[in-house]
Write a structure and sequence with these properties.
The chain is an alpha+beta fold. The chain has helices at residues 14-28, 58-66, 70-86, 102-132, 141-150, 155-162, 168-181, 203-219, and strands at 3-9, 36-42, 188-191, 195-198. Strands 2-1-3-4 form a four-stranded mixed beta sheet. A hairpin with a 3-residue loop joins strand 3 and strand 4 (195-198). The N and C termini lie close together (10 Å).
Protein backbone atom coordinates (compact mmCIF):
# COMPACT_ATOMS: atom_id res chain seq x y z
CA UNK A 1 0.00 0.00 0.00
CA UNK A 2 1.32 3.42 -0.97
CA UNK A 3 0.35 7.01 -0.37
CA UNK A 4 0.98 9.07 -3.50
CA UNK A 5 1.78 12.76 -3.31
CA UNK A 6 1.75 14.76 -6.55
CA UNK A 7 3.38 18.17 -6.30
CA UNK A 8 2.87 20.94 -8.83
CA UNK A 9 5.76 23.39 -8.60
CA UNK A 10 8.30 25.41 -10.53
CA UNK A 11 12.08 25.26 -10.19
CA UNK A 12 12.34 29.05 -9.84
CA UNK A 13 9.63 29.28 -7.17
CA UNK A 14 11.09 30.02 -3.71
CA UNK A 15 7.96 28.90 -1.86
CA UNK A 16 8.07 25.61 -3.79
CA UNK A 17 11.54 24.87 -2.43
CA UNK A 18 10.53 25.83 1.12
CA UNK A 19 7.38 23.69 0.81
CA UNK A 20 9.48 20.79 -0.44
CA UNK A 21 11.71 20.98 2.62
CA UNK A 22 8.78 21.18 5.01
CA UNK A 23 7.16 18.13 3.43
CA UNK A 24 10.48 16.27 3.63
CA UNK A 25 10.73 17.13 7.32
CA UNK A 26 7.23 15.72 7.84
CA UNK A 27 8.13 12.59 5.87
CA UNK A 28 11.32 12.09 7.92
CA UNK A 29 9.18 11.70 11.03
CA UNK A 30 6.45 9.64 9.37
CA UNK A 31 6.66 5.94 10.30
CA UNK A 32 5.43 4.80 6.87
CA UNK A 33 7.64 7.14 4.80
CA UNK A 34 9.04 4.25 2.76
CA UNK A 35 5.54 3.67 1.42
CA UNK A 36 5.00 7.26 0.30
CA UNK A 37 5.64 8.06 -3.35
CA UNK A 38 6.33 11.65 -4.40
CA UNK A 39 5.69 12.63 -8.01
CA UNK A 40 6.71 16.01 -9.40
CA UNK A 41 4.33 17.80 -11.75
CA UNK A 42 5.12 20.78 -13.97
CA UNK A 43 3.96 24.34 -13.46
CA UNK A 44 5.39 27.58 -14.84
CA UNK A 45 5.14 30.71 -12.72
CA UNK A 46 5.63 32.84 -15.82
CA UNK A 47 5.50 30.98 -19.14
CA UNK A 48 5.93 34.31 -20.95
CA UNK A 49 9.53 34.60 -19.73
CA UNK A 50 11.79 34.68 -22.81
CA UNK A 51 13.68 31.47 -23.46
CA UNK A 52 16.80 33.40 -24.39
CA UNK A 53 19.39 33.49 -21.61
CA UNK A 54 19.82 36.96 -20.10
CA UNK A 55 21.55 38.47 -17.08
CA UNK A 56 18.36 40.05 -15.72
CA UNK A 57 18.03 39.46 -11.98
CA UNK A 58 14.83 38.35 -10.28
CA UNK A 59 14.70 41.49 -8.11
CA UNK A 60 14.59 43.69 -11.21
CA UNK A 61 11.80 41.61 -12.73
CA UNK A 62 9.80 41.70 -9.47
CA UNK A 63 10.23 45.46 -9.22
CA UNK A 64 8.95 45.92 -12.76
CA UNK A 65 6.10 43.44 -12.39
CA UNK A 66 4.74 44.74 -9.07
CA UNK A 67 5.60 48.41 -9.38
CA UNK A 68 8.05 48.48 -6.49
CA UNK A 69 11.60 49.72 -6.17
CA UNK A 70 14.55 47.38 -6.68
CA UNK A 71 15.40 47.80 -2.99
CA UNK A 72 11.88 46.75 -1.98
CA UNK A 73 12.14 43.71 -4.24
CA UNK A 74 15.48 42.74 -2.72
CA UNK A 75 14.01 43.11 0.77
CA UNK A 76 11.18 40.77 -0.24
CA UNK A 77 13.73 38.26 -1.50
CA UNK A 78 15.72 38.61 1.73
CA UNK A 79 12.67 37.74 3.83
CA UNK A 80 12.08 34.55 1.87
CA UNK A 81 15.78 33.69 2.00
CA UNK A 82 15.63 34.02 5.79
CA UNK A 83 12.71 31.57 5.90
CA UNK A 84 14.71 29.16 3.75
CA UNK A 85 17.57 29.41 6.25
CA UNK A 86 15.17 28.27 8.98
CA UNK A 87 14.68 25.10 6.92
CA UNK A 88 18.45 24.57 6.71
CA UNK A 89 18.98 26.04 3.24
CA UNK A 90 21.50 28.73 2.33
CA UNK A 91 20.45 30.63 -0.76
CA UNK A 92 21.95 33.22 -3.09
CA UNK A 93 18.51 34.16 -4.38
CA UNK A 94 19.50 37.82 -4.72
CA UNK A 95 21.84 36.67 -7.51
CA UNK A 96 19.35 34.31 -9.19
CA UNK A 97 18.70 35.19 -12.85
CA UNK A 98 15.32 35.33 -14.56
CA UNK A 99 14.83 32.01 -16.38
CA UNK A 100 12.22 30.26 -18.49
CA UNK A 101 11.67 26.78 -17.02
CA UNK A 102 10.04 24.81 -19.85
CA UNK A 103 13.25 22.89 -20.63
CA UNK A 104 13.85 22.12 -16.96
CA UNK A 105 10.36 20.64 -16.70
CA UNK A 106 10.89 18.57 -19.84
CA UNK A 107 14.02 17.07 -18.29
CA UNK A 108 12.12 16.31 -15.08
CA UNK A 109 9.73 14.21 -17.19
CA UNK A 110 12.71 12.52 -18.83
CA UNK A 111 14.10 11.70 -15.39
CA UNK A 112 10.87 9.96 -14.41
CA UNK A 113 10.94 7.98 -17.64
CA UNK A 114 14.55 6.93 -17.11
CA UNK A 115 14.65 6.27 -13.39
CA UNK A 116 11.16 6.58 -11.95
CA UNK A 117 10.15 8.99 -9.21
CA UNK A 118 13.46 8.50 -7.34
CA UNK A 119 15.59 9.92 -10.15
CA UNK A 120 12.92 12.51 -10.87
CA UNK A 121 13.13 13.71 -7.26
CA UNK A 122 16.92 13.85 -7.39
CA UNK A 123 16.83 16.03 -10.50
CA UNK A 124 14.17 18.29 -9.01
CA UNK A 125 16.31 18.87 -5.92
CA UNK A 126 19.43 19.46 -8.01
CA UNK A 127 17.67 22.04 -10.18
CA UNK A 128 16.26 23.90 -7.19
CA UNK A 129 19.67 23.88 -5.52
CA UNK A 130 21.36 25.08 -8.71
CA UNK A 131 18.98 28.00 -8.96
CA UNK A 132 18.62 29.12 -5.36
CA UNK A 133 21.87 28.04 -3.69
CA UNK A 134 24.22 28.44 -6.64
CA UNK A 135 22.39 31.19 -8.59
CA UNK A 136 22.80 29.26 -11.85
CA UNK A 137 20.53 29.91 -14.80
CA UNK A 138 18.18 26.93 -15.13
CA UNK A 139 16.97 28.30 -18.46
CA UNK A 140 20.45 27.79 -19.92
CA UNK A 141 20.63 24.44 -21.70
CA UNK A 142 24.31 23.96 -20.88
CA UNK A 143 23.48 24.37 -17.17
CA UNK A 144 20.53 22.01 -17.51
CA UNK A 145 22.68 19.41 -19.21
CA UNK A 146 25.33 19.66 -16.50
CA UNK A 147 22.79 19.30 -13.68
CA UNK A 148 20.85 16.47 -15.36
CA UNK A 149 23.92 14.40 -16.24
CA UNK A 150 25.26 15.07 -12.75
CA UNK A 151 22.38 13.18 -11.12
CA UNK A 152 22.61 10.27 -13.54
CA UNK A 153 20.49 11.01 -16.61
CA UNK A 154 21.80 9.58 -19.87
CA UNK A 155 23.78 12.34 -21.63
CA UNK A 156 22.65 11.32 -25.11
CA UNK A 157 18.98 11.40 -24.11
CA UNK A 158 19.42 14.74 -22.36
CA UNK A 159 20.88 16.15 -25.58
CA UNK A 160 18.03 14.67 -27.63
CA UNK A 161 15.37 16.16 -25.40
CA UNK A 162 16.99 19.59 -25.23
CA UNK A 163 17.34 19.67 -29.02
CA UNK A 164 13.64 18.88 -29.53
CA UNK A 165 10.20 19.59 -28.09
CA UNK A 166 9.97 16.16 -26.45
CA UNK A 167 7.85 16.08 -23.27
CA UNK A 168 6.44 19.55 -23.93
CA UNK A 169 2.98 17.96 -24.26
CA UNK A 170 3.47 16.28 -20.85
CA UNK A 171 4.41 19.62 -19.29
CA UNK A 172 1.31 21.26 -20.73
CA UNK A 173 -0.86 18.36 -19.55
CA UNK A 174 0.43 18.88 -16.00
CA UNK A 175 -0.35 22.60 -16.18
CA UNK A 176 -3.85 21.89 -17.48
CA UNK A 177 -4.43 19.38 -14.67
CA UNK A 178 -3.42 21.98 -12.10
CA UNK A 179 -5.99 24.35 -13.58
CA UNK A 180 -8.61 21.59 -13.48
CA UNK A 181 -7.90 21.15 -9.77
CA UNK A 182 -8.38 24.88 -9.29
CA UNK A 183 -4.75 25.56 -8.42
CA UNK A 184 -3.92 29.20 -9.09
CA UNK A 185 -0.44 29.09 -7.62
CA UNK A 186 2.26 26.74 -6.43
CA UNK A 187 3.36 24.74 -4.61
CA UNK A 188 0.20 22.66 -4.80
CA UNK A 189 0.16 19.21 -3.21
CA UNK A 190 -2.39 16.52 -4.04
CA UNK A 191 -2.43 13.40 -1.87
CA UNK A 192 -4.02 10.26 -3.32
CA UNK A 193 -6.17 12.53 -5.50
CA UNK A 194 -8.25 13.15 -2.35
CA UNK A 195 -6.56 15.89 -0.35
CA UNK A 196 -5.18 19.16 -1.62
CA UNK A 197 -2.70 21.40 0.16
CA UNK A 198 -1.95 24.81 -1.29
CA UNK A 199 1.22 26.69 -0.43
CA UNK A 200 4.32 26.06 1.68
CA UNK A 201 2.34 25.07 4.76
CA UNK A 202 3.94 24.33 8.14
CA UNK A 203 5.48 20.90 8.61
CA UNK A 204 2.79 20.04 11.18
CA UNK A 205 0.05 20.37 8.58
CA UNK A 206 1.87 18.02 6.20
CA UNK A 207 2.19 15.53 9.05
CA UNK A 208 -1.55 15.70 9.67
CA UNK A 209 -2.34 15.15 6.00
CA UNK A 210 0.05 12.20 5.79
CA UNK A 211 -1.55 10.57 8.84
CA UNK A 212 -5.06 11.09 7.49
CA UNK A 213 -4.16 9.76 4.04
CA UNK A 214 -2.48 6.69 5.56
CA UNK A 215 -5.47 6.06 7.78
CA UNK A 216 -7.90 6.23 4.88
CA UNK A 217 -5.72 4.09 2.63
CA UNK A 218 -5.43 1.47 5.39
CA UNK A 219 -9.20 1.35 5.77
CA UNK A 220 -9.76 0.44 2.11
Amino acid sequence: MNVRIEIWSDVVCPWCYIGKRRLETALAGFPHRDEVEVVWRSFQLDPSTPREVTNERVADRLASKYGMSADEARQMQARVTALAAEEGMHWRHDESPVANTIDAHRLIHLAEQQGGTKLQGELKEALLNAYFAEARNVGDRSVLRDVAVGVGLDPARVDEVLASNEFEDAVQADIQQAAAFGATGVPFFVVDRKFGVSGAQPTELFTQVLERAWSEASAN
